[in-house]
Design goal:
Elements: H1 4-7, H2 10-26, H3 32-47, H4 53-71, E1 85-89, E2 92-95, H5 96-121, H6 125-134, H7 139-170, H8 175-206, H9 223-240
Antiparallel strand pairs: 1-2
Helix pairs in contact: 2-5, 2-9, 3-5, 4-5, 4-7, 7-8
Organism: Caldithrix abyssi
Membrane topology: Multi-pass membrane protein
Subcellular location: Membrane
């Protein structure tokens, strides 16, 4: 049994997901209702994906902490008007506006990540790169997508290793020990991830990878694909006009 998202043409899904991501990026931070609507749309897409909620929850738990670590400096950003000081301890200052911006950034990242996760889990890799070729996108764009997909795979692998090491070494210790160990392992995790990503990139470039990918799976365009594409194009026109 094929679910709705699995029957759509990759090009139609690509247009709709890109429109949804641009909408999330362009939406103002105060547009809470719009974020709620986008989340409801993504929840409906997850329901009709045929993969189950568990796989999305597991992959979010594995990968999203990396985004959280990279955006932590937003908490300590000094605003132009420093009158909204929220917390001060020695040289550490946290402002209310910085916390608000951090929460807004996390919400946007989560919605964008879910949109990309929905797309990648319902699209065979062969159909995806075949769609990129049909859309006449340049080879460098396909190369970037390929590297991003490989980077997400590395994140999952390194996170599983980090979690297994943490459980085996520090199970049953005090909270203070667990906190210090979590910080040390997180730093090691990030350094290993950066090093493995660099080695993977150099290996791919040394083999002459230019973005091309053998696309063996194709899909047929239907009226449903046309309707989904029209919705995506309408969203794009509504954003930029």
């Amino acid at each position: 049994m094929k679910y709705f998202l699995q029957t759509l043409d990759v090009r139609a899904k690509f247009i709709f997901i890109i429109a949804l991501i641009i909408l999330i990026i362009q939406a103002p931070a105060s547009a809470g209702i719009l974020y709620a609507i986008v989340f409801a749309v993504e929840a409906a897409l997850i329901f009709f994906s045929g993969n189950g909620i568990r796989i999305y929850f597991r992959r979010t738990v594995q990968i999203y902490p990396m985004f959280l670590l990279f955006t932590l400096p937003l908490l300590f950003r000094s605003p132009a008007d420093a009158s909204d000081l929220l917390f001060h301890w020695q040289f550490i200052r946290v402002y209310f506006s910085a916390v608000s911006g951090f929460i807004s950034a996390q919400l946007r990242l989560l919605l964008i990540y879910l949109a990309l996760l929905i797309f990648t889990t319902t699209t065979p890799i062969g159909q995806f790169f075949d769609a990129l070729q049909r859309l006449r996108l340049p080879a460098w764009f396909s190369a970037i997508i390929r590297l991003m997909l490989h980077f997400l795979k590395l994140i999952r692998i390194e996170f599983n290793r980090m979690y297994s090491a943490f459980r085996s070494r520090y199970s049953g210790h005090k909270k203070s020990v667990l906190f210090k160990a979590a910080i040390n392992i997180s730093v090691t995790y990030m350094l290993r991830l950066i090093m493995r990503s660099e080695r993977s990139y150099m290996a791919m470039m040394s083999r002459g990878f230019n973005g091309s990918f053998p696309a063996r799976q194709t899909s047929q365009w239907t009226r449903t694909d046309t309707a989904v594409s029209i919705v995506g194009i309408t969203l794009l026109l509504g954003i930029f006009l």
